[in-house]
Amino acid sequence: MKAKEKMDHVLRVMGEMFPDAHCELNHRNPFELTIAVLLSAQCTDETVNKVTKDLFEKYKTPADYLAVPLEELQHDIRRIGLFRNKALFIQKLCQILIDEHGGEVPEKHEQLTKLPGVGRKTANVVVSNAFGVPAIAVDTHVERVSKRLGFAKADDSVLEVEKKLMRLVPRELWTETHHRLIFFGRYHCKAQNPQCEVCPVVEFCKEGKVRMKPASNRKAK
User: Fold this and answer.
1) Closest Cα to residue 164, out of 150, 176, 179?
2) 23 labelled ligand-binding
3) Alpha carbon of 66 to those of 14, 117, 132, 219: distances in Å?
4) Which of 83, 91, 124, 147 could form a disulfide with 137 if both were Cys (CB 3.0 to 4.6 A apart)?
5) How confident is the model at residue 216, as a pLDDT?
6) 199 known member of a binding site
7) pTM more than 0.85
8) 189 annotated to bind ligand
9) For residue 161, which of 176, 180, 189, 139 has the smallest C-alpha distance?
10) What positions carry a catalytic annotation?
């Protein structure tokens, strides 16, 4: 089976498994999404949503984040990993939004990546979910699943994984593909204890095939 045919098949299966795959970070506008994705680095979406429930009621605009001391913002997001650095990034980001973008989150990818704390993955999430621009954001789940299923090599960088996925998937399906891969990795093909025994695409997964072999056979090799 050719790579594109395999990708089409895998995405159909994932679509059947997770028909409602979507961005799980709670937000009401592009600004809140940007803050939420920034906070989500090395942190679960579940934890971020717990923090932003109160955070987004207290801070509604970039100016709100700049109206308090850095220490207060750090305290408000203290449950988030790397909260000190992230609080600093948020205030710097908000200052740039006010100074250069009229207080609004820019829609262009290259402008987003110039904001403090906003890397390529964050920018991809924002443009695709907030502005409807097709993009594939490669997080840990997307990277893991792509490599396990052979769509990327084990030593590929995150950018290389993204480029390979973009070549295999039609542009109009990039965002949908991103969500399906995340859900598949988050709830099925987990980093620890993946559900190989009931996986409908284990035939494409070298790691899964090894896991499925009897322990005696694995030791013999």
Assistant:
1) 150
2) no
3) 42, 16, 29, 59
4) 124
5) 42
6) yes
7) yes
8) yes
9) 139
10) 121, 139
